[in-house]
Amino acid sequence: MTALPDLAVVGAGPAGRALAHRAVAAGLRVVIVDPAPDRVWSATYGLYTADLPGWFDPAVIAASAPSVTVFTPDERVLPHGYAVLDTPALQRSLTVDGARVVVDSAVALTATTVTRSDGALIRARHVVDARGARTAEHRDRPRQTAAGAVIDSPDPTMVLMDWRRAPDRSAERAPSFSYRVALGDGRRLVEETCLAGAPPVDVDELAARNLARGGSADVDEAVDFPLLTGAAPWRRGHDEALRVGAAGGLMNPATGYSVGQSLTVADTVAAAIAAGRDPHAAVWPRSARTAFGLRATGLGVLLRLDPDDLVCFFDAFFRIDPTLQRRYLTAHADAHGVVRAMGSVFARLPMRLRATVAAATVY
């Protein structure tokens, strides 16, 4: 009789494949369910180098720098190492040899079962939904949008946020910033981003702003995803599958950062299952729930600020201790760090803006 799988992962994108990869490495019996498990990933993934897990293959890094640059609007260089990943190499590195791969769609999930499109049932000790956040289902929620072009450039600098207005577009009231990072091999991504909007700036307008900044007229990368899929992603029904990745709340709702959390949480889930513990409780301790709620409050603040105040807010953020910046941006369960960062930013805001921010946190 075939042994019951320890884990069924539904979705073979970055979050699902990373989880399956680490679960196999932990000695678990794994099933992956995806209608196209070998489809090529095309998104650009960047993260702070300090957030790379110890098992990560450094050959997957396409380009890196020991610091990042922001303009708010004055230039500031911050001591955060930053890496842009080679997406095809990332996909190849997350091997799932030893896992059973089922090429099919899942039409229904429970905590221990996956129903395939033909009605067949897959049973496992644990089922994890890693299918990602589906934008069409969350059009009414705050979303992040971006339009990027890949250009030839040897420039190695990593510009995470350039809030200076695009030339000849100073009248634009909906805010956006330029994200410019090295991709390796003499290439560079120049991308105009609407950090958060409800609704956000549309991709065509962002492409026009990108061109005004000196980018290409081409749109090599278009981004549109929800920053929130629920007010409390840790809440689930008694028989509901655990969700990971962006759809499971493993994203900073105030920034859209998710890849670092997905890579780290893969080990958390695998270790919990291997030890016979509840993976949901391991992913969502009280500190993680509190940190998520605080960051969701931060997203609410950003949505209420006008463009000039938004730039002022980020200028204050990038003047706080760099360690606190990172604790706010990436640490999944560091509620204490998030509180300290938010308090430090508030103390650096002008009095007028403090009142606006305080009111936004109440309503």
TrEMBL record:
Catalytic activity, EC: 5.5.1.19
EC primary class: isomerase
GO terms assigned for molecular function: isomerase activity
Name recorded for this polypeptide: Lycopene beta-cyclase
Pfam families: Lycopene_cycl
Organism: Gordonia humi
Origin: domain of life: Bacteria
Keywords, sorted A to Z: Isomerase
Species classification: Bacteria, Bacillati, Actinomycetota, Actinomycetes, Mycobacteriales
